[in-house]
Amino acid sequence: MSNANRILVVDDDQDLRDTLAEQLALYDEFVVTTAETAGEAMKAVQADRIDLVIMDVGLPDMDGREGVKLMRKHGFRSPVIMLTGQGSDADTVLGLEAGANDYVVKPFKFAVLLARIRAQLRQYAASEDAIFQIGPYSFRPGAKLLVSEKGSKLKLTEKETAILRFLFRAGQKVVSRDTLLAEVWGYNSNVTTHTLETHIYRLRQKIEPNPSAARFLVTEGGGYKLLP
Fold it and tell me: What is the pLDDT of residues 50-93, one digit of tens each?
């Protein structure tokens, strides 16, 4: 799935690390990588797009909370869920102050962790810090930007940003023209499908190598969808 969320599991307990990776990988919505130390985690988030980190407090090279603090210092904005064997309020406060978004106390039920992961991803997707991958571009809706693999920036209008955000959230499902009109423009009788088609045309001029033969933003079944 092109829109799968990339999850990084950081824990020096190999059994727990492997179990979490296996369980999360059963869901098509996730692509999972692992790390054993905070140092490995910091390299991973700098080298690739990571949408959420699950990080243990007790890591061999440093306290996981210090690792989170360093990741935040270097610009990592995606959600972090801390795992800890300590359930005290003071421990939770330390983690949140370090930059974690949530705290899960061991032992925990996988279903609870899964719910926390999905909740954090939903909140992040609606935030100004969110970054999504669309084809060869990093899509930054908060800044209304598409950034290419070479670092060049394409400025988007507010409507273009809204169209891409809604299509991204739909996965690879076709979104009808009427649905896009309602979601992006609201129920405004003055707006027609021609207006939407004009915006789609302009988007393709910006993002497609060959706009007349779209690869990423395609027309299908009376609507549009995004492809990897």
Answer: 999 999 999 999 999 999 999 999 889 899 999 988 766 677 77
| CA proximity to 127, closest of 42, 48, 44, 51 | 51
Q: How many CB atoms lie within 10 A of CB 198?
A: 12
**How far is it, in rounded angstroms, from Cα 69 to Cα 226?**
35
* Start-to-end Cα distance in the chain: 8
Cis peptide before 107 (omega within 30 of 0): yes
Distance CA 143, CA 149 (A): 17
In whole angstroms, what is the distance from residue 126 CA to residue 140 CA? 11
Helix H or strand E segment including 42: helix 38-47
Which residue is associated with the tokens 């930059």? 99
With CA atoms as reference, report the closest residue to 103 among 118, 121, 126, 86. 86
Distance between CA atoms of residues 133 and 127, nearest Å? 16
Q: Six-digit token pair at 122?
A: 């939903």
